[in-house]
Amino acid sequence: MQRGLTLYDQGDLVKARLEFRNVLQIDPEDADAWLMLAKIAEGQQDWARAYSAYGKTVELTPGNQEARVKLGTLLFAGGQTDEALAEAEAVLAANPQDPAALALRGSVRLRQDDADAALADAEVALQQNPAHREALALQTQVHIRQQDLPAAKQSLETAIAAHPDDLRLLLALAGISQQLGDTEGTEAILRQVIDREPKVLEHRTRLAQYLNARGDPAIAEQVLRQAVADLPDHKDAKLALVALLESQKGNAAAAEQLRAFVAQTLDDHALRFALAARLGSAGEMEQAEAVYHEVIDRDGDGPDGLHARTKLAAMALSEERLDEARSLAAEVLAKDAEDSDALLVVVALAIQDGNPDQAIADLRTILRNQPESAGALRMLATAHEARNEPALAQDALRKAIELAPDDPVGYLQLAGLQTRIGDVDGAVLTLDELLRRDPGSAIAQTALARIQQLQPDTEALEETAELVKGTRPEHPLGHYLSGLVQQRRGDLEASIQPLLTSLEKNPQAAQPLVALTRSLLALERYDDAEQHVLQVLEQGADEIVATNLLGEVYIAAERRDEARAQYEKAIAARPGAPLAYERLARLQLNDGDTDTAVATLRHGIEASKGSPLLTTALPQALEQAGRVDQAIAAYDEILMANPSADWAANNLAMLLANHRRADPAALARALNLAQRFEASDQPAFLDTLGWVYYRSGDYDRAAELMEQARAAGEPTPQRQFHLGMTYLKLGRVADAKPLLSAAAEAEQPFEGMDEAKAALGGL
């Protein structure tokens, strides 16, 4: 026991703990040994062991007031306020003036919103011991709760005078000084903390962040450059400086500084990885890959070289270079069969290849080595969903959320799964939990709004809107949903105010802005729409969304040149975003500028690395431009990459039937493409197959399919033309005439309109 106390006083907690353990081997009920073990665990911030040891001490010696207060403090920290209060009251029953117990009881009372009683406990405790730390801290907290910041500052200054080595008190004082607007005092305190612990990087980053927010970016940068100089072996100091430069000067400046650090320390691969990650996030994928290859060149098959290969494999996977991803992952797994990052790439490939069983087997290996990998659990959920095991998928996602409760990805994936299996209420609850943790989460708001919009019941949507406004009146989502309710009911004027309110609460939210603009355009209030979009753009709204919306406004207002300029501006701001290319090309097509529209789409496909939106639009634009051969080639390319793309097969079959009707091989191919629609219930697909049969001379089968299409959906002029022509071939002139008349009188031209008029004129 004596050796343990001596070692404890010397600060050798590990050896002291062994001595006290030896005491308990001799006498398991030695309360003093249990108390010392509790203090050691507390000093090591091992709260579970501290709680257990203090509890054992109280069990053996209920009158040990120190142990009871410590136990109560741990209970209080764990949210068990009633149990903490019981421990404090037990001590005060024996000693009503005990300052530690009074401070504990006062803390409980403050949490129970009884600030007056809490302050009374703090003052009684300070009468017994004017320097009692916990009592002074409680007094400070009460003053802050009462918004009496000068009194809070005075309490903290008294506490610091009594406990000059307690940096937590100094940091609290810095916070109070900042709230009081004492910029010089705040800076001085933060520098004092650095002087006390110069090797703690967190103190320096805290000062730099404060100075940067205060409007002194140069001084903030100087603080972190000094940190890099003073802590040369601390790579996080370099990364902190890089992060600051990015916030001040942008990604290019941050990458330049990282390159300089890499040049100074050629073998510091951690900095290379940071540089590659930053380049990748900026969309500079080729440069990021080059950095990873540098790591491989320098480290070969070492751990960093293998890690660089997994990064390259993940990049190849994201860009659908599947063979390359597979090869790189295999290289890593040949050296380390249980490398988690490489296995995750293999898992993603297995899921994409339709082999969820192999994916689950590999994920079990990952989770055996890393049971707390939230990413692996999310992948496991994807694999189970692919095996049609939604219950297991949900279990995996809930575990992932438990492990990473502040990461929105798990919530969003779970909500998506619940929506797909029809559990809309469950999805709403999942997203509501995410919004409770992060009320300003734009991605959660958007996801929840999309789910609500899927509900056909407007009354249910209105109930949800009122619920959100009732529980979170300052949250923009409820007002946004209210605006959608009015839009559904056709009351566009009534939709405007709630949408404006939603935007006022979050000017950067895209969905309310889109909805508001659509209402104003439908009301032909073009100037108001333009004004609101420009206003939120100034307030920090997503530039691409707002710029594209301005294009819509100008198109509706017939200001086509300005619309073109807006879309060109959006493309210049974010060349990889596909929507502006599609809108600009559509505008060019409507203006008859088909060659330029095709060029715009080709440029967009290259810049966006094959956006499906633009890949879909290109062959249609080529067809409209009369470039039939190029349109056929574009559809062929789509079907080669995705043979199950029904829309492409449908469009290509119709294109061949209309423009290659004299070519038996082309018609045979059109029929081969369209025969996948024999059992379809989609009117457009049935009509295409029927038209191909018409071009092939099988008029009975053509009529049968086209009549199914007419029964399945609202007829279009083109479908009326197709069926009318088929009836003519079958000699059913009376049935053909009204169909051809309706087609010939259509307001919008379509493929075959001239043929319909000619046939009608010949009757």
What does this structure look like?
It is a single chain. The chain is built from 45 helices and no strands. It is mainly α and 763 residues long. It is elongated and about 115 Å long.
What is the topology?
Blueprint: H1 2-10, H2 13-26, H3 31-43, H4 47-60, H5 65-77, H6 81-94, H7 99-111, H8 115-128, H9 133-145, H10 149-162, H11 167-179, H12 183-196, H13 201-214, H14 217-230, H15 235-249, H16 251-264, H17 269-281, H18 285-299, H19 303-318, H20 322-335, H21 340-352, H22 356-369, H23 374-386, H24 390-403, H25 408-420, H26 424-437, H27 442-454, H28 458-471, H29 476-488, H30 492-505, H31 510-522, H32 526-538, H33 543-556, H34 560-573, H35 579-590, H36 594-607, H37 612-624, H38 628-641, H39 646-659, H40 664-674, H41 683-696, H42 699-712, H43 717-729, H44 733-744, H45 753-761
